[in-house]
């Protein structure tokens, strides 16, 4: 083991990053467990566009594996990548179903977007954007992401549901009345118990607290299903929490989507608009995630810069184009990386561990497809709390800093988008400082003005 430790030390500089092999591996497993849902959700979303779900499953796992290994190799950061939520929904429901493009054309748009990102990453454009964002806004992004992923967790667990007030709390009384308690209601209860279990483990400072919280909630779900308290109901989206090994352990073929790119409408105006939309959302979702998770892990230097950001952005860009070739929507840095960082993950060993598990999932798809959302939801909610703590770093004395930070924070959960939160934060920061005359003393970078104008134009034109 000493030999292995030496190899890991040489590759990942564990001592320099104040971490060890056990912490990194635990962090990698935790991150993987909190984002393993993408292996089930991505095939489901993209199959709505007419894509083969088995092929998309394999493409999703392989895209995550390749992009995450690149992240470890290029930057030695603990960030994990996979085909992103939101971007896959835009791909399937807007580009294909609403605008009438084939999924092959949509994959071509994703592929070209990735190539443009590679160029932007090589020419420092993305790095310059990251560095131009003021420190208070960077902390605000971390807080906003915390609220956003907590909201996603509450929704995944069905604790928060659609209602007359836009959102409302799940009604146990209603579930007992309409007979859905044994399918949906019990999982809401299990998720609430899971939040308390995870919170207690965090307070007790148990190593791997978030991962243990996921596993404990899942085991409780299995017990409930075994004794008949939980009854799966596929019509309501409630499935068995026991892995289904009836189809065996084979890797599902990627042939139905592999290299199915259609460039026939590449020069049309519609195609450019779609590609720009993919580009925009991916750019600012990725930057937002890097800002939020890196600031939470204290990886930013004294000037608010991320030292090896070029490698991180390059892995994201290459991952997007490679993923499109495999047959999946945009690959991006996952906000769930915060779960591993909260566990102490600080180096590429965390990423390599998660990547290995994505590779393993190709053979063990029944197990990973069985992890229920009510088991991962408590992890997202508790990680949301841990990211929210960055709010103490925001300067609330200077209102020209605090108000844009506040706007950025509330926009992310309420507009259901990391990139919208950044857009609102940047626009409000520039306008407020410009109109109040504070821009001179703050030396706001030219790029911030350019970004503000671009964001405004985006709302007018797209």
UniProtKB/TrEMBL annotation:
Transmembrane portions of the chain: 21-41, 53-72, 105-125, 137-161, 181-203, 210-231, 271-293, 313-335, 371-391, 403-432, 444-461
Domain of life: Bacteria
GO cellular component terms attached to this protein's record: plasma membrane
Compartments it resides in: Cell membrane
Pfam family, one: Xan_ur_permease
Keywords of the record: Cell membrane, Membrane, Transmembrane, Transmembrane helix, Transport
Xref: InterPro entries: Azg-like (IPR045018), Azg-like_bact_archaea (IPR026033), NCS2 (IPR006043)
Membrane association type: Multi-pass membrane protein
A molecular-function term among this protein's GO annotations: purine nucleobase transmembrane transporter activity
Family the UniProt entry places it in: Belongs to the nucleobase:cation symporter-2 (NCS2) (TC 2.A.40) family. Azg-like subfamily.
UniProt-recorded name of the protein: Guanine/hypoxanthine permease pbuG
Species for this entry: Hungatella hathewayi WAL-18680
Lineage summary: Bacteria, Bacillati, Bacillota, Clostridia, Lachnospirales
